[in-house]
Amino acid sequence: MIFDQWHDRAADDDWRETSRRNARSVQTTVGWIFWDPGAVARFEAHGLPGPFGYIASRGAPLAPAGAEALTAAFGTISSVGIAVTFDLLKGDAAAFREFWHLRDEAVDEGLRRYAPDIVDPLVEMGPTLWSAVDRLPRLGRVLFGATVSMPRPRNPLLSGWHAVNAIREWRGDSHWALMASAGLTSSEASIIHNEWLGYKDDWLSKSRGQTEEEINHGWEMLSRKGFAADRRLLPSGLRLRQQLEELTDGLTALPWQLVGADFSTEFAERLEPPCELLLARVDETAGPNYQPASRVRKRYRDPEGDGTS
């Protein structure tokens, strides 16, 4: 299978593990803001409920390309929610950028308040992270490319945060490219991720705003492909999802290879403790199922393999 060839070439086990480990801190450093009351209050004061404010603030770099482009880039986020956001903002790219800046205000305020020990690491490590971001390939990474085209903040804390955000978007674009290469649709990708996580009742799909019709169609397609039966994922489907995760870890090791092993370890050791505080903040503001990429989970063990997956 071609995925096996990619897996072998992507990165050795040490770099794959570094990528997997640091992905948690990257996701947490950025993702907590999606449900932060400070951000939500700012969005609502400017006319958008929280979920639509998230779409506007994150999607601002790509907003000039329109709702369909943003739907493609966002992977499993509801196309309906994205369309509503564009309608509410009348497709005005300047309005989207306003929400980008509102999010920045909330990030600066929230990090200093809820995870103050992350401030110095982001300030000090930001320039090196940007040096890696500037060398990452753009091919196929559309949301990443749009994101790095935005003006970089002069505020050193926000600059460091945006460097981490750029790495996050680069990993995200890479991950969705792999999902597309596996022939998965948005609804199918949500379903196999939900089952791989051990979540119940299509929780992940529903949390992203997907409709019952979309979810039902996703189950139908997975069944046709031999990955599911009776609305349960088969071992073949779980195996595919695990393989895609390992491929993602391997193919997104590049930022850490560019900054080097010592810096990558320092990043992990300095960011993990304050990121635990930010993850606790997600538990409080959203709930323990949210932001699964930030959470430690048991590694999937293939019942037909050697147990090392």
What do you see in this structure?
- This protein is an all-alpha fold and 309 residues long.
- It has one domain.
- It is built from 16 helices and two strands.
- It has helices at residues 2-10, 13-31, 37-45, 50-59, 67-74, 79-88, 93-114, 119-133, 142-148, 156-181, 186-197, 203-207, 212-224, 235-251, 254-259, 261-285, and strands spanning 228-229, 232-233.
- The chain has a two-stranded antiparallel sheet.
- β1 (228-229) and β2 form a beta hairpin.
- α2 (13-31) packs parallel to α16, α3 (37-45) packs across α4 (50-59) and α5 (67-74) packs antiparallel against α6.
- 46% of the residues are buried.
- The model has no long low-confidence stretch (mean pLDDT 94).
Which tags fit this structure?
mainly alpha; 309 residues; two-stranded antiparallel ribbon; globular; 16 helices; 69% helix
At a glance:
With 309 residues, the protein is mostly helical.
What's the structural blueprint in terms of helices and strands?
Blueprint: H1 2-10, H2 13-31, H3 37-45, H4 50-59, H5 67-74, H6 79-88, H7 93-114, H8 119-133, H9 142-148, H10 156-181, H11 186-197, H12 203-207, H13 212-224, E1 228-229, E2 232-233, H14 235-251, H15 254-259, H16 261-285
Antiparallel strand pairs: 1-2
Helix pairs in contact: 1-14, 2-10, 2-14, 2-16, 3-4, 3-7, 4-6, 4-7, 5-6, 8-10, 9-10, 10-14, 11-13, 11-14
